[in-house]
Write a structure and sequence with these properties.
mainly beta, 3 helices, 13% helix, globular, protein transport, Mog1/PsbP_a/b/a-sand, transport, Mog1, Probable ran guanine nucleotide release factor
Length: 202
């Protein structure tokens, strides 16, 4: 078990908070990030954790919603060899209900080959992607939490410069918390501190 240092991290100006390892750096300190996203990376392991606020997708049912978003992500990133590994049932999230309108969550895990930034297919890395979808129905918002964990780094990928190519060293062997646990922890500690973040819906 990892004894990694974790802390409560403010998101979206403190309107939301959640707990995850301190090794993840805020990307907005380095480059511009869209207003509806918070992006954190651990450059030493080429792992990333992304929080997104999206308009509620009424056409997507609660059952398998995280899998739907994972598929959508694979399409957006022009991924190859996408495989859905597992998906959860719908879980109630009582601490996130608004005006007695319940919130629910689903999770999904997949694997896919994707390139970094503007790199082409010849530089694709094999990654495991964890997605959690928190459906805040009271404020018409789908929260997406996505964690990327490299499995195999392509020597042509820009990631190879930072972490080396070949099979990625499992987190447990490096004394780090595995991404599966990182996303679980951030989900279980996810808290809305200011519902005004969601504008007119709130």
């Amino acid at each position: 078990m990892s004894s990694e240092l974790c802390s409560m991290r403010p998101l979206f100006g403190g309107a939301i908070s959640t707990v995850f390892p301190q090794r993840f750096e805020d990307v907005s300190d380095i480059r511009q990030v869209p207003d509806h996203q918070e992006v954190f990376v651990d450059p030493s392991r080429d792992e990333s954790l992304i929080f997104e606020l999206l308009d509620f997708k009424t056409e997507v049912g609660d059952i398998g919603s995280a899998s739907w978003f994972l598929n959508d992500l694979a399409r957006e990133q022009d991924a190859e060899g996408f495989q859905l590994i597992e998906q959860s049932e719908v879980i109630e999230a009582p601490g996130l209900s608004y005006r007695n309108i319940p919130a629910v969550a689903t999770t999904a895990i997949g694997e896919m080959a994707i390139s970094k930034g503007r790199q082409g297919r010849e530089a694709q890395n094999l990654v495991r992607v964890y997605v959690a979808n928190l459906r805040l129905k009271g404020v018409d918002t789908d929260v997406l939490v996505t964690a990327y964990e490299p499995i195999l780094i392509n020597p042509l990928s820009e990631s190879a410069d930072a972490v080396g190519s070949g099979l990625a060293v499992p987190a447990s062997q490096s004394g780090k918390m595995p991404m599966r646990d990182v996303i679980k922890q951030s989900l279980s500690t996810f808290k809305v501190n200011d519902w005004n973040l969601f504008g007119s819906s709130a």
